[in-house]
């Protein structure tokens, strides 16, 4: 006999009627009758007797129903144990980044992961943004997404992806026709950034600070859409990840300008605690994150 036969017998007994069993098993009446005849043929005896328009278990049927419960319960138990072994059935992952641009892609990836691993709760800890490494050491988060590696034996870094930063300008800005800009080009510019401190701003860290150049004016503006509206009005310039800017360039007076002759590339890493023993589902999440990002952007 097959598992489907055991499920059929269990459903007929527990639902109390053929009609309800049909609904529970999502079968047609003819399919249910055919499966029941198959089970009785293989068993060599009747499983049910029809009495006053009701199906009543025979002695053999009662024995089979008892065994069906034991077998099906054991199968359910085993499936649950395998899920726990492979996926880590229940758990929580607290995650944050050091860059607000990561929140452009992170929620959609988390949503897809949750679909595959529905019992793993994923929490974005926004208050840890810009200082994920410290929050990681303080056990406020479990995983940090960072582009700056701080040498610390307590932290392990896994490469996630590489992207390119560009400057966003109005099509009327004199930079719009430039092949690329360098630090000295910023001296008379109004630089719009997402947030302070400046030490956390990529363009400052990698371009302006090494050249000891300060823009004429700096304005922190956390809303990307508001910043882009200011740039469209030629009221400033802003650095942005090329992949994050792409959707805003279509049918728009915005232009992307390369930073330095070779472009401004930056690597992003997953940061985790070196000494902590993470459950298996953390490894599944990290692998999922790496695979999904490369798939989305064809990296």
Description:
The structure is a single chain. The protein is an alpha/beta fold. Helix content is 42%, strand content 24%. It is built from ten helices and twelve strands. It has helices at 3-15, 18-25, 29-43, 59-87, 106-116, 132-137, 202-211, 224-232, 242-249, 280-297; strands at residues 48-51, 54-57, 91-97, 120-124, 143-146, 155-170, 180-181, 190-193, 217-220, 237-241, 254-259, 264-273. The strands form two sheets. Strands 3, 4, 5, 6, 7, 8, 9, 10, 11 and 12 form a ten-stranded mixed sheet that branches. A hairpin with a 2-residue loop joins strand 1 (48-51) and strand 2 (54-57). Helix 1 (3-15) packs across helix 2 and helix 1 packs across helix 4 (59-87). It starts with a helix and ends with a helix. The mean pLDDT is 89.
The radius of gyration is 30 Å
SSE string: HHHEEHEHEHEEEEHEHEHEEH
Major beta-sheet overview: 10 strands, mixed
Structural class: alpha/beta
Any low-confidence stretches, pLDDT <50, length ≥5? Answer: none
List the total number of helices: 10
SS elements, strand count: 12
Overall pLDDT: 89
The proportion of strand residues reads 15-25%
């Amino acid at each position: 006999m097959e598992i489907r036969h055991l499920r059929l017998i269990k459903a007929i007994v527990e639902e109390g009627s053929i009609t309800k069993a049909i609904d529970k098993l999502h079968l047609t009446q003819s399919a249910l009758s055919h499966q029941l005849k198959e089970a009785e043929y293989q068993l060599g005896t009747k499983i049910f007797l029809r009495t006053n328009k009701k199906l009543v278990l025979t002695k053999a049927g009662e024995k089979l129903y008892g065994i069906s419960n034991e077998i099906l319960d054991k199968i359910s138990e085993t499936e649950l144990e395998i899920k726990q072994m492979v996926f880590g059935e229940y758990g929580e992952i607290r995650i944050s980044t050091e860059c607000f641009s990561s929140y452009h892609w992170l929620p959609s990836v988390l949503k897809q992961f949750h679909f595959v691993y529905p019992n793993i709760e994923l929490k974005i800890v926004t208050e840890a943004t810009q200082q994920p490494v410290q929050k990681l050491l303080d056990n406020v988060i479990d995983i940090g997404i960072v582009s700056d590696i701080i040498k610390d034996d307590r932290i392990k870094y896994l490469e996630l992806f590489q992207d390119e930063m560009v400057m966003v300008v109005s099509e009327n800005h004199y930079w719009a026709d430039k092949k690329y800009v360098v630090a000295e080009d910023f001296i008379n510019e109004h630089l719009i950034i997402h947030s302070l401190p400046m030490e956390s701003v990529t363009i400052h860290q990698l371009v302006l600070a090494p050249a000891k150049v300060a823009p004429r004016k700096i304005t922190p503006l956390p809303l990307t859409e508001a910043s882009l509206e200011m740039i469209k009005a030629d009221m400033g310039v802003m650095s942005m990840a090329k992949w994050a800017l792409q959707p805003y360039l279509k049918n728009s007076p915005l232009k992307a300008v390369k930073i330095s002759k070779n472009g401004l590339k930056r690597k992003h890493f997953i940061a985790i605690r070196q000494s902590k023993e993470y459950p298996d589902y953390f490894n599944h999440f990290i692998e999922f994150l790496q695979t999904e990002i490369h798939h989305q952007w064809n990296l």
